[in-house]
Design a protein that fits this description.
The complex is a heterodimer of chains A (about 280) and B (about 325).
Chain A: H1 4-27, H2 33-49, E1 64-67, H3 73-83, H4 123-136, E2 143-148, H5 155-166, E3 172-178, H6 187-190, H7 196-202, E4 206-212, H8 216-227, E5 234-239, H9 262-272
Parallel strand pairs in A: 1-2, 2-3, 3-5, 4-5
Helix pairs in contact in A: 1-2, 1-3, 1-9, 2-3, 2-8, 4-5
Chain B: E1 7-8, H1 14-23, E2 28-32, H2 36-39, H3 43-47, E3 52-54, H4 59-71, E4 75-81, H5 82-86, H6 89-97, E5 103-108, H7 126-131, E6 137-139, H8 144-156, E7 161-164, E8 170-171, E9 186-189, E10 194-198, H9 201-215, E11 220-224, E12 227-229, H10 233-243, E13 246-253, H11 258-269, E14 274-279, H12 289-295, H13 300-312
Parallel strand pairs in B: 2-3, 2-4, 4-5, 5-7, 6-7, 10-11, 10-13, 13-14
Antiparallel strand pairs in B: 1-8, 6-12, 9-11
The chains are: A alpha/beta (about 280), B alpha/beta (about 325).
Chain lengths: ~280, ~325
């Protein structure tokens, strides 16, 4: 049965996808494929799981979100705008001179962005530090770190994976957007990091793998499971489709970091549907 | 106050100072990459185990995690050897410098005076790298007394710091207590014919050189430029105007360290003859600290020769 709340969430993901395509089209640059693959995860996280309050972005007990795949700011800014951290109209300034909405995320721009990113592989470490600080302060906030599957090539991630288990950082949750495509090509042609689930388990993490990253109920269920894991850090590996929601962008390495043409933009918006 | 020892390594200041700062109530946490015994940070672990985080031999993770700890409000001290901090340069840049987080990096074993471990362990380029991290304040203390004062200043000043300490025992310059002021040169000796600007181990050698120059009738000013960034350009300019010749002495590659910074500052303000005592265009090798300092020409005698040459280039 589809409830009103489920419908609202479904409509949110549609608006977020429209924002992403509009932002990258208007900026004539930006990372569209990995933003669309993470849209459903991000939408569920911000509307169903994350304890946060857009009116108090510096609330010390808020859950933290760290975008480690820092090029996917379109989905981050779109979700933050829909949550009320910035005006939706400001999304049109993405990547423009003077905008708060930088190409890669910058801590505090706008408030609600809790980390800087761009060089891949650092977010899990940063989130680990936040989680250790939270424990020292006897706060029970959780820290969610979103990474790409291509990003798993970075050695620092495995340093952080080792350390998070060693420190039993059970308020740290790693989310992997496994869309199978990295900058130049499919991950299978660039660097194979599989089996990711076995690797994280071997490093001492609780792992839930093969979660459909576009099934909103499955996403929510996995996120709530990860939140409640105790005595070890938790990792959820989502199977996603790069460019999800726009037929000609799906599974297409050409839409990692390139904007759509005028014609492609019109087609994409038509496919996504919803209000103008 | 307690009497300063006659000789000590600057690295010995870290652990005791961190313990004292925490006892005073500062929100200090310490992150470590398996070198706490050598950097002296490890003493903090016994005193405040819940505020000590081991990251193993993994500097990149340690630095980004330090940034995360700072992002939730802590004053974070990270330590390792200078060369291994270089291993985490991108993490220092993106995780710490760009968001200006409250991470204090205190690296020990700076320079060639590390000695026997050889070239891989000798950071001859770290100050150039640190000075390129735009929001960092960069400090090279002259002795253990000043090192403690610099660490204390870093703890009380928001934002990133890079403090370089050394391995060998060295003479204590500030026997009467520290005079460290963040961002200000300390004039250890006034003079009118030439100014020697020095940092770290070269400060005691600059003082020895000033004695030798005095015996030859030359009056040398000695500035300890412990804070190399931001550079005290006012003191550098005053030295140029008042003494007319400058020698810069440092345990760092000569083309990219304090000497280069002072030369650039003077080029637009008040150019005067300058000479540079630093590591020439080469890496180090194994040997004792003193052997390597001599090999690289980082001696009082080299400073004397450089001072006489600079004075000789003054316009008559």
């Amino acid at each position: 049965m589809v409830t009103t709340a489920d419908l609202a969430l479904q409509l949110l993901t549609q608006r977020v996808r429209r924002h992403i395509v509009q932002m990258v089209y208007a900026a004539r640059s930006g990372h569209i494929g990995g933003s669309l693959s993470a849209t459903d995860i991000m939408s569920v996280l911000y509307s169903r799981v994350l304890r946060h309050d857009p009116r108090r972005p510096d609330w010390p007990d808020r859950d933290r979100f760290v975008l480690s795949k820092g090029h996917c700011t379109p989905v981050q800014y779109a979700v933050l705008a829909e949550a009320g951290y910035l005006p939706v109209a400001e999304l049109a300034t993405f990547r423009r001179r003077g905008s708060r909405l930088q190409g890669h995320s910058v801590l505090g721009r706008p408030q609600g962005v809790d980390s800087s990113a761009g060089s891949l592989g650092m977010g899990l470490s940063f989130g680990l530090g936040m989680a250790l600080g939270g424990r020292l302060q006897s706060r029970d906030f959780d820290v969610y770190v979103l990474m790409g599957d291509g990003e798993q090539n970075e050695g620092q991630i495995w340093e952080a994976a080792m350390a998070a288990a060693f420190h039993r950082a059970d308020h740290l949750v790693a989310l992997i957007d496994r869309n199978g495509i990295q900058n130049d090509d499919r991950t299978s042609n660039q660097m194979v990091t599989e089996p990711l689930d076995e690797k994280y388990r071997a490093f001492g993490w609780a792992v839930r793998a093969d979660v459909d990253g576009h099934d909103l109920a499955a996403i929510e269920d996995a996120l709530l499971w990860a939140r409640d894991v105790r005595d070890q850090p938790a990792c959820v590996i989502f199977d996603t489709v790069k460019g999800k929601g726009v037929s000609f962008m799906e599974h297409n390495p050409g839409f990692h970091g390139a904007p759509p043409s005028d014609e492609q933009f019109a087609l994409a918006m038509d496919e996504l549907g919803g209000d103008e | 106050m307690t009497t300063a020892p006659a000789a000590a390594a600057t690295r010995e200041a870290l652990g005791p100072t961190l313990i004292r700062l925490r006892q005073q109530g500062l929100d200090i946490v310490v992150v470590d990459a398996d070198l706490g015994a050598s950097t002296s940070a490890r003493a903090f672990r016994a005193a405040f185990p819940e505020r000590w985080f081991s990251f193993g031999v993994a500097e990149q993770n340690m630095i980004s995690a330090a940034a995360g700890l700072a992002a939730v409000g802590h004053t974070v001290f990270a330590s390792t050897f200078a060369v291994f901090a270089e291993h985490a340069y991108d993490q220092l840049r993106m995780s710490v410098a760009q968001p200006r987080l409250n991470v204090k990096l205190v690296v020990s074993h700076g320079g060639v005076s590390v000695g026997e471990d050889g070239a891989s362990a000798q950071s001859v380029e770290d100050l150039a790298l640190a000075a390129s991290l735009l929001s960092f304040r960069v400090i090279v203390p002259a002795d253990v007394v000043e090192a403690a004062a610099a660490i204390e200043a870093a703890a009380h000043t928001p934002g990133p710091f890079y403090i370089r300490t050394g391995r060998p025992k060295q003479r204590v310059v500030y026997t009467a207590g520290p005079r460290f002021r963040l961002g200000e040169a300390d004039c250890l000796r006034d003079g009118s014919d030439v100014t020697i600007i020095a940092i770290g181990l070269l400060v005691e050698r600059a003082l020895d050189a000033a004695d030798a120059l005095a015996a030859r009738g030359i009056s040398a000013r000695v500035l300890n430029m412990a804070t190399i960034r931001p550079l005290d350009t006012a003191a550098v300019e005053a030295a140029a105007r008042e003494t007319g010749a400058i020698v810069v002495a440092e345990e760092h590659l000569v083309h990219s360290g304090l000497g280069a910074m002072c030369a650039q500052a003077l080029a637009t303000r008040h150019p005067v003859p300058m000479e540079f005592v630093g590591v020439p265009d080469r890496y180090g090798e194994s040997g004792t600290s003193n052997e390597l300092l001599e090999l690289m020409g980082l001696t009082a005698e080299s400073i004397v020769v450089a001072a006489e040459r600079a004075i000789g280039h003054k316009r008559r």
